[in-house]
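User: Run a structure prediction on this.
Assistant: Running it now.
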Amino acid sequence: MVVQTKNRSCECAQCFMVVQTKIRSCECAQCFMVVQTKNRSCECAQCFMVVQTKNRSCECAQCFMVVQTKIRSCECAQCFMVVQTKIRSCECAQCFMVVQTKIRSCECAQCFMVVQTKIRSCECAQCFMVVQTKIRSCECAQCFMVVQTKIRSCECAQCFMVVQTKIRSCECAQCFMVVQTKIRSCECAQCFMVVQTKIRSCECAQCFMVVQTKIRSCECAQCFMVVQTKIRSCECAQCFMVVSKLLSKQD
């Protein structure tokens, strides 16, 4: 499903549908489809397909594949691999995190977890394994929950397991489970559940949707559910839905 907005239509970030915009067509961010733009072609952001551009090739943003570019190589956005660059420290394509290539301490793209590559004790971003870290507390990129790394019993970011921490519990970022915390509850960023919050408005880490917490209706970042908010709507970055905004005139 693709729904037209007032000023554009959008390709589905996690599906096989690609819709022409006025200025360009785009590859699907989480599927195997790649569509030529006027000036380049691109690798699929969350699949194993890599397509050469005119000046570079790139690693897949959510897989374990890393491809050398002419000027740099980069860590995989959702894996624990970090590759030295020659000119700079690199920013993860899906978490905006700067990773120091000289020291090779890496940050997981969907959990903000800093992992020492020398020891590589880390929770797997897409698996059921959680390993103790020693260096800092972490916030899950798709559930907004802060978990102490010293105790580090944590829900798996992309699985159905939820483990109580000493300070609070958390909803699983990509499953149907939602657990109340002491201060707030939150909609699961990649599931069908939406829970009222009490303290703030939030932006979904993978859908860029701004939601008022007082009303707190939101489309799920990786599901088919879309609920109208009062302030604006947004196409979900990893789902099939695009919603027209009610009040705002800018997408």
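The two ends are 19 Å apart (CA to CA).
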